[in-house]
Amino acid sequence: MLKNKIYKYFFNEILKNFIIILLTFTAIAWVVRAVNFLDLMVEDGYGSAIYFKYSVLNITTIISRFIPLAFLLSLTISVIKFERQKELLILWTTGLTKIKLVNIFLLIAFFITIFQLILSLLINPFLLNKSRSLLSQSTSLEINTILRSADFSDTFNDITFYIDNKNNNNELENIFIKDEIGNLSTIINESGNKSNTTIIAKKGFLANEKLILFNGVIQSLNEKNEIKNVFFEKTELGLSNATTRTIKQPKIQETSSLLLFECIFSKKFDSSINNCSGEDYKTNVVETLSRRLGSPLYIPLISIITSFLLIYKKEKTYSFLRKYMLFILSFVMLILAEILLKYTGLSPLMTLLYLMLPITLTFMLYLYLLRKILTEKIRK
To answer: What's the domain range around 35?
Structure first.
């Protein structure tokens, strides 16, 4: 019963530190990324509600990126803390073996590995795809935020706006618009002959997804290369057909793992996977799947490397340097994993190496650690 309480205590302490560190890193990174997402409102004209939802849906991706590093820090900090507070010494005097504590570390690593696999393979692609669909399905844009004084705006496909001045009442002055394929509904293209259109107006304002212009000219170049000029005192431009440059097709990291596996192994793949037959695309698919499957496998390896802290006595010479060396070694393994990941799409051998390396090293280091603990016990 005593042993169970002690094991539970160590389990809870390590898990608590892990959650605190992970949430701290995630919060900092999410704030930075959310600032970058402000372009959705400033440059692309999406509303604040879309911006907030899009930012929130990206949180789990940030969490999964920081899980290995957060686990390394939490485990290292916890072991050093247990040693400084003599808790490990109390543990050994009660007759508990070090290998059981190592197994606790592995058990925690196993649960965290499963958690990251679920995030990487299932939750992250689903939420990222959801965030992309928010942008593609959104029809209402804050166009007032796009049009700024003395600035060219090409947020819309094949349409360029230039506003010389925009006053406090959101009234526009000296307006220039270049519509290359006739997306804007004007009195010219209603006649049916249009290729591209240039519009110049002295004043204007936005109302109900329409641009109301005053005192200007519409110059149209039709398919026969004939220029037609129409002067107006007032006209309305419909903006409903204008589309933004925001990427609406899901990227590879936003595609479900099932579809990516289908892209690699199935000859008849889902039509929703664009360019699946291309070699470059498949290379990126392999790299993405390797990240989703392989990165979590390095977590148990980290727990084994950190467990070597248990076999070094405090009075041993230069023991404090060894602690830092073990931490650096674990950190280097995480960096090595990121480096190897870049080569996984080049050949099946590199993919296999990336996936098997953490499993093999974990098994070998566990046997070596077990031997060191048994040798240490015999000497005592």
So the answer is: 2-138+249-379
